[in-house]
Amino acid sequence: MTLTFPPGFLWGAASAAYQVEGAAQEDGRTPSIWDTFSHTPGKVLAGDTGDVAVDHYHRFREDVRLMAELNLGAYRFSVSWSRVQPTGRGPAVQRGLDFYRSLVDELLGAGIQPVVTLYHWDLPQELENAGGWPERETAERFAEYAGIVAGALGDRVEFWTTLNEPWCSAFLGYGSGVHAPGRTERLAPLRAAHHLNLAHGLGAQALRAALPARAQIAISLNPAVVRPLSDKPEDLDAARRIDALANRVFTGPLLRGAYPSDLIKDTASITDWSFVRDGDLAVIKHPLDALGINYYTPSLVSAATDNDGSPARHDGHGASAHSPWPGSERVAFHQTPGERTEMGWTIDPTGLHDLLMRYSREAPGVPLYITENGAAFDDKPDAEGTVHDPRRIDYLQAHLAVAHQAIADGADLRGYFLWSLMDNFEWAYGYSKRFGAVYVDYPTQARVPKSSARWYARVARTGELPAA
């Protein structure tokens, strides 16, 4: 049976600046924390860096033509802060802004809506040198940066996302250290989470001041679907703990203007949360025009036992001797059953339905967008140069089917952004994992749409999901 999505449903694809742009030292751009991290031996698989990536900085016109061929209604991309404001302070570099002006113009000329993400993990290194996200000033600097970008693009861009997956920035960057800047601390992730929340609020204020009234302002979260291993009280409590650290540390202040009391209790041995100042929570609880949800796989947890060794080893976020779960290090993560992607992540679309219905309840009246969803597989061209990826088609089919079901169940879901448009630099995994609907031959930078890209193009053109 063919499933039809509502008229006006937005079909898009997404990318992030450091993963695709390259041109790392051109036109005034200075290092971000990901430049520093990727150039540090042992941090990224095979020593890969984003110096060249997929050269989107020079090939964006070709890439936009490709998007048009794939019938995309929207392209979600991030702005490189250090390309626009190299030190994270002071005046903008116009050459950096000109790239994004040109990209936006190219998109609009092709009938594709630009969706701007202001921050996708690439903090200017100079701000990290001053303390990074654990320091309040970083949030203040972000608001200034948001105003600069809004001033340059606000007459043409109507959909804005402040932050992408702040959980990763805070807890993987400052807790487990598997993401830039690679710090392994217990207090710093909690301070970083608050200052990222504050950055969203201050940034949203700056956007409101600079943008036309019609502009939409959102944030993209990667909420965890946390399931207990059993119904034992200790396993239920483990799920509650991880839900607090993965989800409610952000949605509490964003949606309700308060940090959860159980989170504060769970982390009492680490901090008294005195870094939250009077007035912060009111700033963070800035009205949202939309909420972005990124989903890949669920989590299965239990109370840790003495036999669990490194309890977080199956949390799906990379190997580290340090936990990204401050105050809940003794929660064990388990591999969920089922088919897995090349990331080792179980394919389970029911988790996406769970998230859409949860945030329909928790954020009533706020439209939802799936701002990332996709899978990495070991894609290779055949003898004719064609890239067949039937497993990705099956993955997208299943996840779009539950998205359609969520709409039928009352979720105000307005759009879907495939992760990702092209194969690219996959953070600490370098170029070893391919998420793209478009295959990239890295030595030549040739782009080859995979069979999933052609499949997705038909869905985007018709708004219809064919029967599996």
From TrEMBL:
One Pfam family, short name: Glyco_hydro_1
Keyword set includes Transmembrane helix: no
InterPro entries named in the record: GH, GH_1_N_CS, Glyco_hydro_1, Glyco_hydro_1_AS, Glyco_hydro_1_beta-glucosidase
Family stated for the protein in its record: Belongs to the glycosyl hydrolase 1 family.
Transmembrane parts of this sequence: none
GO molecular-function terms, A-Z: beta-galactosidase activity
Organism: Streptomyces javensis
Name by which UniProt lists this protein: Beta-glucosidase
Leading EC class: hydrolase
Matching NCBIfam families: BGL
Region of interest (Disordered), ranges: 306-328
Enzyme Commission numbers on file: 3.2.1.21
Active site: 372
Catalytic activity as recorded in UniProt: Hydrolysis of terminal, non-reducing beta-D-glucosyl residues with release of beta-D-glucose
Keywords for this protein: Carbohydrate metabolism, Cellulose degradation, Glycosidase, Hydrolase, Polysaccharide degradation
